[in-house]
Specification:
heterodimer; A: alpha/beta; Rossmann fold; six-stranded mixed beta sheet; 24 strands; 34% helix; globular; B: ABC transporter involved in vitamin B12 uptake, BtuC; two-stranded antiparallel ribbon; 14 helices; 4 strands; 76% helix
């Protein structure tokens, strides 16, 4: 037990333990967060980093151990108390009121008022706040209309408006583009320079290395180490996370597909959703990547190809045969399927079991006269569970209780049930742990080796470069350049993308 | 069993636990409760509502609400009595479910074509259907004193009313539809996550229309049984039954957010409500407290159901 005064410690966590339904998620975690530092929390998914962040923010109660906040023991630690003590939490899933404006959201609960009549001065207050924080947003924009990146900024501003001394950010960059991430890092540094503390929960090691002062690694709910970030490297952090000095996982070897006729051809595709001229082709056994910044229209191209959104013009050909009036059901019949980017919203039905989720698009094949063939469903589900190493390996397991990585595998497996010919993968490894990511990458390579044509979309450029045989750069809904991954690095791709952007800008001004 | 497992179990079987407790209490308090005659009566009186609640379960699981089934019931009762009187009694009984089916399909199209919440659409169609029933019946009762018409509600097979067998068969079929068929799987997915269902190639609008069609068919069938039993068709029949049916579904632990539920539990919910009613009757309790008691029990059931959700 600490008897010493907590001078100079923002948060002291002593022997923190948390369990959900009897399963320990965190056990005996002890660490110190100092004022005026950016403190990274890293670990695989399921290691407990988000849970620890939420304990700091008051969202989870520790069943054992204690928290001292700026030297004070606070017996009841919940979100309002945390906020009152200067600890704010920025959630992975944003908690904003979509119908209110930016300014109204930032000052929600802090409005100036007399006799319950609002002064309606939030916009002015927000402008002042933004001048000091380097964020730029229209205070009167309605939040529901803004992209996720902007909504995230609102969450930060909300914490600043509450004069938070410690801000916990849970995976804040997962939906930001590269320059938005840089901007967020700058804001973190500004916050630190003002003497505030940022707790940065992330699975992007490069981000953690780039901006944090100190970093704490967790593994299986236990504390591994806290160290000065400048003493660490990517591989030293990975081995701390994985234990046993395991190196960062390489991508599976690329199998060159034999030169064949294209399976999927897309020509000058346009849609009302922002696709403004997409042209690409994919051959049998080929993995083709789409690379673009967030908002470049990568997912929209995929949706227009598969028929989730209607196209205005352009042509899609499957094995050389034009495919017009596309619908999702028809695409599935042609063996053209898409693993959507957002597994919670678009992918899985959380109220249904693993088997029911996987079989959802294939009910007609696994039934006779409308009756589900349970035994066949179970055996195919079992095969995919084994193939993708889904854990827990329960055919009728409750997906809503699975880890992100295993949910993603279920979603992936859902589209492998009928051996598809063309698979569009949108963010196949977003928010999953290292182990699941590795298995998903192997499965993608195996799928291509077995002859499927794959369109791979990811905001992680190294992922696309590591897996794809060819790539197209996408800018503002258009495919602008075809590149070979061997000739490029993440940095050279980014500069190419920025060049295309700049080219469009000069065209527009001239 | 872990605490979570227990909560889950209780959420699923709360309605059965309550029925058993209530039956034990009532048999203890009154000799006239636990008699074959009384139990059969309860069953018989509630077959129309049970049929409607069974179908309402599918609507709610698919993420909808049908507030028009009471009015479809009125239309069915009036039309079947009118047809029985003016054309043929058998045809009258047969046409009630058919009319219900058609009205249910109209509901489904109103909801999917206008792209409005089913709550709003069925409030509107409910007034329209009720209005047509009043016009057809000219605001009067339509008595049909013919054995060819009353056999469905009053006749017995194997010691139990025909209508009870019809209800049991209907609930069993719907239960199988929900748990064993591709349609049932699709209903669960539409309510659980409509966008994921759409991206899985499911034509979600068709599924929704089908659930409302089934709810309409059930209301029509229920009205035929009720009109046959009292040998009367009237436009005021079925008033408030839509809310009783929804209450029974919720009592059965089906989530009002959709995606989760079971048909048999809604039928059990109907009998829980019926037992409360029956208890007041046979105990000669002050009927002024009946609504109050029913409301408290529904509130308790919702509380249990909400506590199991995270």
């Amino acid at each position: 037990m600490t008897l010493a005064t907590d001078d100079g410690v923002a948060i002291r966590a002593e022997g923190i333990g948390v369990s959900f339904g009897g399963v320990p998620v965190l056990s005996d975690v002890t660490l110190e967060i100092l004022p005026g530092e950016i403190h990274g929390l890293i670990g695989e998914n399921g290691a407990g980093k988000s849970t620890l962040g939420k304990v700091f923010g008051g969202y989870y109660q520790a069943s054992t151990g204690s928290l001292r906040i700026f030297g004070e023991d606070i017996p009841k630690w919940d979100p309002p108390t945390a906020l009152a003590n200067g600890v704010a939490m920025m959630h992975q899933e944003l908690q904003l009121v979509p119908a209110l404006t930016v300014a109204q959201n930032v000052y929600l609960g802090l409005e100036h008022q007399s006799w319950s009549i609002l002064h309606r001065d939030e916009a002015g207050r927000l402008k002042k706040l933004m001048e000091n924080s380097g964020f730029e947003l229209d205070p009167n924009a309605v939040v529901g209309d803004l992209p996720i990146a902007d909504q995230q900024k609102i969450e930060i501003l909300r914490a600043l408006a509450r004069n938070a001394k410690v801000i916990v950010m849970d995976e804040p960059t997962s939906s930001l583009s590269k320059d938005e991430v840089d901007q967020l890092h700058k804001s973190m540094q500004t916050l630190r320079d003002e003497g505030r503390t940022v707790i940065y929960v992330s699975h992007f090691l490069d981000d953690i290395l780039a901006v944090t002062d100190r970093v704490t690694a967790l593994r299986d709910g236990r504390f591994v180490k806290t160290s000065t970030t400048s003493d660490e490297s990517r591989s030293s952090l990975v081995s701390a996370m994985l234990g046993g000095g395991k190196m960062e996982t390489p991508f599976p070897a690329k199998m060159r597909p034999a030169a064949t006729t294209p399976v999927l051809e897309v020509e000058d595709l346009r849609s009302a959703t922002g696709v403004k001229g997409a042209t690409l082709l994919i051959g049998k056994g080929e993995i083709v990547g789409l690379i673009g910044l967030v908002g470049s229209g990568r997912s929209e191209i995929a949706r227009a190809v598969i028929g989730a959104d209607p196209a205005i013009s352009g042509e899609v050909r499957l094995n050389g045969v034009p495919y017009a009036d596309r619908t999702l059901a028809k695409s599935a019949e042609h063996g053209l399927v898409m693993v959507p980017e957002d597994r919670r919203r678009q992918g899985l039905v959380m109220t249904m079991a693993v088997r029911a989720n996987m079989m959802l698009p294939h009910l007609d094949q696994f039934s006779s006269v409308g009756m589900v063939k349970t035994a066949e469903e179970k055996s195919r589900t079992r095969e995919l569970i084994d193939h993708l190493r889904i854990r827990p390996a329960a055919v009728d397991g409750n997906v809503s209780k699975f880890s992100g990585g295993n949910q993603q595998k279920v979603l992936f497996g859902k589209w492998l049930v009928e051996h598809p010919a063309i698979v569009i993968l949108d963010e196949p490894s977003r928010g999953v742990d290292v182990g699941a990511r590795e298995r998903i990458h192997e499965a993608i390579a195996e799928l291509a080796a077995a002859g499927a044509a794959i369109l791979l979309i990811s905001s992680e450029i190294d992922e696309v470069l590591g897996l794809a045989h060819r790539c197209y750069l996408v800018d503002r809904g258009r495919t602008v350049e075809e590149i070979s991954p061997e000739d490029h690095t993440e940095a050279s791709i980014l500069s190419a993308l920025f060049q295309h952007q700049a080219a469009v800008n000069t065209e527009m001004t001239s | 069993m872990s605490w979570f497992g227990f909560a889950r179990f209780f959420q699923s079987y709360a309605v059965l636990v309550m029925i058993v407790l209530l039956m034990a209490a009532l048999s203890f308090m009154s000799d006239s409760f636990l008699t074959f005659r009384n139990l059969l009566n309860i069953l018989n009186q509630n077959t129309p509502l049970a049929i409607m609640a069974a179908a309402m379960t599918l609507v709610i699981i698919a993420g909808g609400f049908d507030l028009s089934v009471g009015s479809i019931f009125a239309m069915g009762a009036v039309c079947s009595a009118w047809i029985a009187l003016h054309v043929d009694p058998y045809l009258g009984l047969f046409m009630a479910p058919v009319i219900g089916l058609v009205l249910g399909i109209i509901n489904g199209f109103a909801i999917t074509l206008l792209n409005v919440h089913s709550f709003l659409a069925t409030i509107a169609t409910s007034l329209i259907f009720k209005g047509i029933a009043i016009v057809i019946s000219d605001g009067r009762l339509i008595p049909v004193r013919m054995d060819e018409f009353t056999w469905l509600g009053r006749g017995k097979i194997g010691g139990a009313f025909i209508s009870v067998w019809v209800m049991i068969a209907f609930a069993l079929v719907l239960s199988l539809v929900l748990t064993r068929t591709t349609f049932g799987r699709r209903v669960l997915s539409v309510g659980g996550n409509e966008e994921a269902a759409i991206l899985s190639g499911i034509r979600t609008n068709r599924i929704k229309i089908a659930t409302f069609a089934i709810a309409g068919l059930a209301a029509g069938l229920a009205s035929a049984i009720a009109a046959s039993r009292i040998s009367l068709g009237q436009a005021s029949a079925g008033t408030g039954m839509e809310l009783q049916a929804i209450a029974a579904v919720i009592l059965g632990g089906t989530s009002i957010y959709g995606g989760v539920g079971a048909v048999w539990r809604s039928v059990a919910g109907v009998f829980l409500l019926a037992l409360i009613n029956n208890g007041f009757n046979i105990l000669n309790a002050d009927p002024f407290y009946r609504d109050l008691t029913t409301g408290l029990i529904i509130l308790a059931a919702i509380g249990i159901s909400a506590s199991g959700r995270r």
